[in-house]
Fold each of these.
Amino acid sequence: ETGVTQTPRHLVMGMTNKKSLKCEQHLGHNAMYWYKQSAKKPLELMFVYNFKEQTENNSVPSRFSPECPNSSHLFLHLHTLQPEDSALYLCASSQERGTVNSPLHFGNGTRLTVT
Amino acid sequence: KQEVTQIPAALSVPEGENLVLNCSFTDSAIYNLQWFRQDPGKGLTSLLLIQSSQREQTSGRLNASLDKSSGRSTLYIAASQPGDSATYLCAVPYDRGSTLGRLYFGRGTQLTVWP
């Protein structure tokens, strides 16, 4: 198994649909992240969970709703999205120990298309 | 807020050349800097992480240097191979606080190495 697994790999949804993206990490890390990669922008941080507690919401619209039931799983619930939300959504994890950092480990992402 | 800039945006070279990819950042008070590789349709793979107290890090044919005072980092790739073809991204943390996976990314350099 790879370290960080994301499902589905591809998702096409209409603007009125509700869907969820799933991320699972098998690395024993205590922090998980959602990043968004659009065609015309650098990678953008969306949400951070540290020890299952959300510590960052980077001004993300409420149509994106994260959930972290335990330190190994992270979800991104989607509803009433806009076409401009089409992007590659990447999940990542790391082991945070105070000021000692570890490299981020990324999943392969979910390619989302909103029609 | 950090602004991370990478030049060139794209680079196409024949196999065997030695390459330099550049990254600059606006706030020199960084805790570390990371270089990542992204293959098409995939997530990011961490290549090198340089702590602020270090000047460089090496891994195989890759060497990354960091000059905090000038706000610059370079990634040197020796004896390039077609398998090195990918997008290379640099990233710096939001701040010196915890959860150091909160990163600002550059737009990346798209590298093509042809046989």
Amino acid sequence: KAGVTQTPRYLIKTRGQQVTLSCSPISGHRSVSWYQQTPGQGLQFLFEYFSETQRNKGNFPGRFSGRQFSNSRSEMNVSTLELGDSALYLCASSLSTSNYGYTFGSGTRLTVV
Amino acid sequence: KNEVEQSPQNLTAQEGEFITINCSYSVGISALHWLQQHPGGGIVSLFMLSSGKKKHGRLIATINIQEKHSSLHITASHPRDSAVYICAVRPNTDKLIFGTGTRLQVFP
């Protein structure tokens, strides 16, 4: 079966722009979570969605937002990009929100210049 | 102090050696995950544990809930095991918290 698909794989944006990243979960998985990975901070939780509802949110500014659609696909948006937003953005899907294994996508590498 | 501590940060081994990576955490959890990340970024989930021990091939993961400690063991290590191994815990608040990772290099 198809894995978790993240698009695009690579992205270069200019400071001040906004960006939308997409994540298609494994068929049947209803939970999607997003993570930011940087060399300095490591992996950090952004948010988690289940059945189109945000269940948890990490400690990120309001410029970071997301949503989940009825088919469980999820998008995250970052507005007013800053240089420090350059990172690998990973999403993961699971059957539900608690005590299920995760399947990760390959990530979107965002570079802000 | 980080809520999830991993040791060692870096590990070098010769092919065939037995490897142990440790993870200690300070919060109550509902599950602990071991993840593997290869260069290029892709992450693979190796284990999810809430108690006891799990084994998959040459990989073994154990957890001691009372001591808030988990270990990942690799038997008969191979160069293809070279990767970053990340411990992540799911506290009862449901947000995953990650350790900083252990970079493993296995030489032939």
